[in-house]
Design goal:
It contains 2 helices and 9 strands; from the N terminus they run H-E-E-E-E-E-E-H-E-E-E. Strand 2 and strand 3 form a beta hairpin. Strands 4-1-7-8-9 form a 5-stranded mixed β-sheet. It is an alpha+beta fold.
């Protein structure tokens, strides 16, 4: 009887694992690779050839994407998946010409559905009045004013 229990538990665990691993549906968003794009759409009031870059630093609890300086129309992008507990969060600190702002570039429970609409992409546009979000690259809303 003890030998039966010893072999039953691993078999049961394997059955549960395989049923979960292969039960991927369209609603199982844990395996989706999301693309986060932040574009510098700030105006440049300076003469040509004198850049006024946007500085931005993005990270999560576990992964530091790094600090970048973006010239006008340059893009800062990375990919991420949602963790099992749906607590994935990437936040950014942006600063430009005396303005600065922290904003959440990707929040799993907020973005897992809305960013699926346009190639699994969360699109951000940094403008002179704030950080704009789009999930279709045509309609933009200012979610984080400066």
């Amino acid at each position: 009887m003890a030998k039966l229990k010893e072999s039953f538990l691993p078999v049961l665990a394997l059955c549960i694992f395989y049923s979960l691993a292969f039960a991927v549906s369209e609603e199982d968003l844990l395996f989706v690779n999301y693309h986060i794009h932040i574009t510098n759409n700030l105006p440049s009031d300076l003469p040509p050839n004198i850049p006024s870059p946007l500085s931005i630093h993005c990270k999560s609890k576990d992964k530091d994407i790094g600090e970048k300086r973006l010239l006008q129309n340059e893009d800062y992008t990375w990919d991420s998946k949602i963790n099992y507990f749906r607590t994935t969060l990437f936040f950014c600190h942006a600063w430009w010409e005396g303005k600065q702002r922290y904003f959440e570039a990707f929040v799993a429970n907020r973005d897992e559905h809305r960013c699926r609409k346009y190639h699994n992409s969360c699109l951000w546009s940094v403008r002179d009045d704030g950080m704009y979000f789009s999930n279709n690259n045509s309609t933009w809303s200012n979610e984080y004013p400066w």
